[in-house]
Amino acid sequence: MLLESFLEASVRRHADKVALVCGRERVTFAEWESAANRLARGLKALGVRRGDRVAIHLENSIEAAVAVFAVLKAGGTFLMVNPTTKPAKLAFILNDCRARALLLPEKRLGPCAEHLSESPHLAAVVVVSGSAAAREEALVAGKRVVAAETLLADATLADDCPDKEHIDVDLAALVYTSGSTGQPKGVMLTHRNMVAAATSISTYLENRPEDVILSVLPLSFDYGLYQVLMAARFGGTVHLERSFAYPHAIMQRVAAERVTGLPLVPTMLAMLLQMDLTRYDLSNLRYVTNTGAALPVEHIRQLRQRLPHVAVYSMYGLTECKRVAYLPPAEIDARPASVGRAMPNCEVYLVDDAGQRLPAGSTGELVVRGGNVMLGYWERPEETAAALRPGPLPGERVLYSGDLFRTDAEGYLYFVGRKDDIIKSRGEKVSPREVEDVLASHPDVAEAAVLGVRDLVLGQAIHAFVAPATGAAPTAQELLRHCASRLEDFMVPQQIHTSDCLPRTPNGKIDKQALRAAILAPAPCTPPGDPGDVAAAVSAQEIGYGSGW
Amino acid sequence: MNDLASRLRHFINENFLFGTPGDFGDGDSLIEHGIIDSTGVLELIAFLEKEFGVTVSDDELLPENLDSIENLVAFVGRKQAPAHA
Residues 21-60, chain B: which have Cβ within 8 Å of A? Predict the structure, then answer.
């Protein structure tokens, strides 16, 4: 089964039902399908062929949801790039997967132009939401720049889907994820992988066509992307929001639109629990889901108390297989710290360091088996071999998650920690190495170490420790500006500590345990002679909630 | 009014753009321009409360009040008006 058939089947059942809502725009399944078909034909006219990678660098919008299905219908492989990704990293990703085409908003064209003209494989740039784009052609030397409106208005394009050559073991998507090496790597997902994951998840969520989902998660985050894919499958409606910055406005919308499903990450729930939720009519809300990082048990308890009619789904997954486990809502009061058991059509077990299966009640690395497991990392054979290893059947490969879990006597899973030092902040993965590399590229920095510190709102807050270069005294503000111009928003540290030298382990590596202990100590490291900057730079974390520790 | 706008702009530049003067107009959305995120809004509210002595209630946490320099100036002006009356 091909992933785009979700939409094609829903059009046959619910052609005139509203599928997507964004701001004041409302689009039916038939309109979504027809726009995707036309854009697919437009992309093919621009040279996109079976298997070609097409990057979608758009904010949550109708256009982004159309683009996903258009790339699939054209036989291509889509990749979502976070709207806050900076031009140099966008170029890295485009070059890494040799993307043939890119869709981006007009406002990003100028800042990215120079990098795009140096991406050798990129043939075409489609500018969305800007009819003046054609005039910008000169900006991106050597590339065809075309406005999406122009492409879609081409009267020679038919409204039906172009002929398909691709099959379900072809790649549907690449999802770039942070790795411990610091360079993002593309998780290869076939149509079959994504159909399997979306089917399992919408089965256990008991999704039905009457469901109305409100998603503030970016489509570049697979949790956000699947809200759209799943609604296409079960014929529901998705409201796409761009930000959770104004939770009051979001909750008004949840009430007014009779939302039934609200996907959250712990940061959002922490903000909701600060509010008086009795002011909103949430009688239609059937479920909330959480993934990305574990919910604090206290927050689960409060949520259950305040919205007792709402099913709470605690879930766990990783990009490499999308989702692994969920806790049936009926179990949440009895086992609030658990993320449950394997989802339908997926199997999990724990292994020790030698790869031996462990009995219930043990602690070990979680291994995942199922049709949802990725094909591998794009052109990263070593990392693929480390993550995908032989499974029970001849030729089969199973996913070693890198996450340590324990199970109770009945096999329910409890997250223990990562095997590597990947940080989870606002539900998204942050590679300490990637942030360290950016800090170390500042001329005033001799070395840097980055770690995650538990935080009630963020899950983990990103703390950076910096040793200045000889004779230099960079301020925290300068270093944060340096990071903010190179990293996605969620990767920028919350706190910068400066110190003349960083502690070492006996074998000469930076001693992150000692740095962690310094944060937990009553008198944390403060930058010599520069306390004011740090206080200003980190004040966001102290407001309202206090930082985790 | 202008003084209020420039103090707000200074705060936004210092705290969210780490000292780089931002390329955005007084009427531009701070969210759409990627200047402020959800934790930024909390920081902004704390600044309004401390700097201008206004109290921001939950129902006032709306983009109409807070999502541009113009909206902020009007909002703070409205909030301060009774005190000066």
Answer: 31-32, 34, 36-43, 45-46, 58-59
Dihedral sign for Cα A412, A415, A420, A426, please: positive
Among residues A209, A227, A309, which one has the least CA distance to residue A264?
A: A227
Least confident window among A33-42, A89-98, A478-487, B36-45? B36-45
Q: Give the residue among A409, A202, A222 at the shortest CA–CA distance from A313.
A: A202
Chain A residues with CB under 8 Å of B40 CB are 245, 540
Structure tokens at A167: 């099959």
Give the minimum alpha-carbon distance from B12 to chain A in angstroms, rounded to a whole number. 12
**Distance from C-alpha of A353 to C-alpha of A355, rounded to nearest angstrom:** 5
Distance CA A64, CA A128 (A): 9
Q: Looking at residue A532, what is its pLDDT?
A: 35
When pLDDT is averaged across residues B32-53 and rounded to a whole number, the result is 85
Give the list of residues 6+ apart from residue A51 with CB closer than 8 angstroms, or none: A75, A76, A77, A166, A170, A171
Within 8 A of B42 by CB-CB distance, chain A residues are 540, 543-544
Contact B38 A243 (CB under 8 A): yes
Q: Per DSSP, what are the bridge partners of residue A312?
A: A288
In a mutational test of the A interface, the residue from B11, B24, B37, B65 whose CB has the highest number of chain A CBs within 10 Å is B37
Q: Percentages helix, strand, coil for chain A, rounded to the nearest 5?
A: 35, 25, 40
Question: Residue B17: is its pLDDT beyond 70?
Answer: yes
The residues, any chain, with a CB within 8 Å of residue A542's CB and separated by 6 or more, are: none
Between residues A543 and A79, the one the model is more confident about: A79
Whether the predicted pLDDT of A34 surpasses 70: yes
Q: Where is pLDDT greater, at A198 or A548?
A: A198
Give the pTM.
0.87
A88 and A96 Cβ atoms separated by less than 8 Å: no
**pLDDT value at B37 more than 60:** yes
pLDDT at A538: 30
Q: Which residues in chain B are closer than 8 Å to A539, comparing Cβ atoms? A: 15, 43, 46
B82 interface with A at CB cutoff 8 Å:
no
Distance from CA of B45 to the nearest CA of A (A): 9
